[in-house]
Design a protein that fits this description.
The chain is mostly beta strands. Helix content is about 10%, strand content about 50%.
Length: about 300
């Protein structure tokens, strides 16, 4: 029977120990790849989009300097750079070709375990396939999340069309198309003191805006009643307690006698506290002007004679 001499054995055992340690540390080494990039991102004029991911490990045996993330996109491999936010965050700026709105990619990362004073062989980990979609129609934010009835509020975004209408739940608002990146609406005369779900509906598809709270507004109307002849005009003044915001304050006034009562839109100009409108008599008859304020629904009776 062949016997190994002690000097030979002393060379074999350290080598086996080193190999065992290498296999142990390689097997225990693990890397978690987390994509931090949204599935949908707003379009921008440069068509450059930052793809960000976290490459994290809890294994202290992984050599930090050995971690080298890459991104594979459109069949090409690009090294990622360490983000200025620090930590385990890495990023890559990708310019999507003109006309493209979708990109597919995945991450690869090379790393190695510490073995003694050096590092072991390179280990490669990969992520699942990811997708980024460029949205040409989206809402960035509303100018405000609460306002009184009649206030004009802007919504910023992209891809807006003249056919778009802002809705409070199912109630349409008077919506103004300002540009493909801006809409504005007047807060409708809905029940005050409540939150409403805002969304934009139109030719480009429905967009969520967010939650909006409607506050009550108080105002005085003078005179408290009108009596005029057909074709005659009389002044009616609406006064609010504070200057109207930018865009003005629209007071929603309706009538149950549209053939007898002819009146223009009631809009308090921005920075002003009152507006006077001319009420004109139409066909003989009687009715009322109705409006909502912090006091609830109010009205001004109107009588038109020959």
């Amino acid at each position: 029977m062949h016997k190994t001499t002690l000097p030979h054995a002393s060379r074999i055992f350290p080598a086996l120990a080193a190999l065992t340690a290498l296999l142990f540390f390689s097997g225990c080494a693990s890397m978690t790849i987390t994509n931090l990039t949204p599935d949908k991102v707003p379009a921008n004029p440069s068509q450059i989009y930052t793809i960000t991911a976290s490459f994290h490990t809890d294994n202290s045996n992984i050599a930090p300097a050995s971690i080298k993330p890459r991104i594979i996109i459109d069949g090409s491999s690009y090294p990622m750079t360490k983000s200025t936010v620090g930590g385990d965050i890495w990023e890559f700026d990708y310019q999507l070709p003109t006309g493209r709105t979708v990109g597919s990619y995945y991450f690869l990362v090379d790393y190695a375990s510490k073995v003694g004073q050096g590092v072991g062989p390179t280990i490669e980990a990969s992520s699942e396939l990811q997708t980024i979609r460029i949205e040409g129609r989206y809402v960035l934010r509303p100018e405000a999340t609460r306002a009184p009835m009649g206030a004009r509020v802007s919504v910023l975004g992209a891809g807006f069309t003249p056919q778009d209408v802002v809705y409070f739940e199912t109630t349409p608002t008077r919506t103004v198309f300002e540009s493909p990146s801006s809409l504005s609406f007047f807060v409708p005369a809905v029940e005050a003191g409540k939150n409403y779900r805002l969304h934009i509906g139109g030719g480009g598809g429905d967009l969520a805006v967010g939650s909006f709270r409607v506050d009550a507004i108080s105002f005085d109307v003078s005179p408290s009643s009108l009596r005029l002849r057909s074709g005659e005009q009389q002044a009616l003044t609406f006064t609010i307690p504070n200057p109207a915001p930018a865009g003005g304050m629209l007071i929603d006034v309706t009538t149950d006698a549209p053939e007898s009562i002819v009146m223009p839109e009631v809009m308090v100009p921005a920075g002003q506290t009152s507006v006077t409108v001319a009420i004109q008599g139409g066909k003989p008859g009687s009715g009322s002007l109705f409006f909502k304020s912090s006091a609830g629904e109010s009205s001004v009776p109107v009588t038109v004679t020959k």
